[in-house]
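Re: weekly structure request thread

Next one in the queue (507 aa):
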Amino acid sequence: MKKIIQKYFTLFFIFNLLLISNITFCDNESVIVVAQGSKPKSLDPHTFNEFPTLGITEHIFNTLVTLDDNGIPKPELAKDFTYLSPTEILFTIRDNVKFHNGEILTADDVVFSLKRMMEKPGSRVILKDIKSVQKTTDNKVLITLYEPSAPFLANLTLPIAAIMNKKYIEAGNNIALNPMGTGPYMVTSWGDGDKIIMKSFKEYFRGTPQNDGLIFKIITENTSRLAALETGEVDIIYAISPIDFQTVEKNPELNLLHKSTTTTELMVLNVTKAGLDNKNIRKAIHMAIDKNGILEAIFLNRGSIATSPINPNIFGSYQNLKPLENNIKMAKEIVFNETKGKGVPTLKIWTSENIVRVQIAQIIQANLKEIGINSNIEIVEWGTFLKKTSEGAHDILLTTWILGVSDIDTVVTTLFHSNSVGAEGNRSFYKNKKLDKIIDLAHSTTDTEKRKEYYKEAQEIILDENPIVPLVYKIDGIGISKKIQNFEYNRASMRNYYENMKKVDVK
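Done, posted below.
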């Protein structure tokens, strides 16, 4: 009995020691606290191609290659890469890169990770060019493509292309709950996902981070995130509502950063639904949307009207498309004529809890009412939103396309190609063989000017067909405490280099 009591006393002591150390870590002045608006679906980057997950996992894992500030791929976990032919790329793996459990990265880990990505719906769309992956020596991996692919290297820089530890996963560890990579931070706790705690990885191959760790707090309400920044509860917040810009600017303890991005606010129409399956009605809906009103009322003119789903900061974006005129009278006539006066069934407009998107939905609802289309706004929890929209439960959804590379291919392939319908990204369920062919041709040619021509034609088809209505190219407002030094933001990759940031006392 005495031994049993001693055993449980020891366990109790260890538990409390861990608890105390965790509290100490959380309260550490050198830990950077970041607020984001949505909870990650999981911490497995191969599974869900969505920002709340990848914005966190990109600090836990690394990719074979990354992007420089100009959007050019450069080695990361790879020491170098060489094209042996237009369809063969040989990667040499960097020496002595450690996983968080102390194991050394090997070519086997790279091969395993790439093959795993090719099996997952969230990641396989970016690796569909791969014909085979094989280890040629202990530190070399050969990737063979079906045909030349201009965007392939850029796709490998996305956080969804994370390299994992083969032995760790094959041992039965759940990467979604207990991620373990080579990145600058290690997850110590994430509970139900509302607060993800990470500590710095001292043996990170690029050097020990300049802070002790990160805490990601999930605060869904914009006003609550702003209040957390003002009180010092958090150090950095993103996607500030333009209406709150002045609040940050007037606070002597905060800085407001304005960053041009590669994002576009989008209205996605499910073309399989009654009314929306009619090309002319989709055109009328596009004509009804008051984009100027959205830009002025919601974004306070911080940004510009979108004519293409492809942000102008992305290679291949064609900005000379003739925009559809905002014409309520003509749009109303089209709806009446196409439905023979019977009208369109009441539509469901789906949006996440993001207040900006809810406000956009309210303007769109009013615009549709003006042309005789009734609609209901449904605010859907993020996890449910992802699942149900991949199944086509929505009529209309509002979203932001956030691109982690500076090449158009990922956008058009994911949002418009027939092979991407559903979970892989095509939530409009739009299929067009001619458009597929153009996207495929642009994908396989390495001639830059030819690619631009193909993508120009693709964007002209999209504007004519309107499966997606582009709304606004927005400016990202970032609120940051003046305690944070060395803030770095890569526009091309949308990556934040937290490992280089310091937290200092400015009193």
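The two ends are 56 Å apart (CA to CA). The CA atoms of residues 71 and 492 lie 5 Å apart.
Next request, please.
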